[in-house]
Amino acid sequence: MAIFDDDEDLLFIYKYIFEEDGWHVDVFIDCINIIDKVSAVNPAIIIMDNWIPDTGGVIATQLLKANESLKGIPVIYVSANNNVSVLANEAGANNFIAKPFNVDELKGIVNTMVKTLGF
Fold this sequence. Notes:
The protein is α/β, with parallel strands linked by helices. It has a single domain, classed as Rossmann fold (3-Layer(aba) Sandwich). It has helices spanning about 10-20, 35-40, 55-65, 85-90, 105-115, and strands at about 1-5, 25-30, 45-50, 75-80, 95-100. The protein has a five-stranded parallel sheet, with helices on both faces.
């Protein structure tokens, strides 16, 4: 699992809750060289924040989805914006959740996506 968010405290929480469930979690505070970062860790799933340096979540997700070797990795888009569904759609994300979110709801989305995609 790769998680992109500019909030270091939230990254710590993400890492803790998903590692408790047995995930290997790589966290990133920006999207600089996102193709290289994702290629290096080859995650089963990505959680992508909207407001993240350098390009922002929409463009970062679009770059991933345009890359032939990475486009199949499911992306869950996360934002505090009230139009998170529109942003996720524009980005090409596979799913979304609004901040603040319920941890169990996020885990449920991750687990459903993983089961659906056969990971």
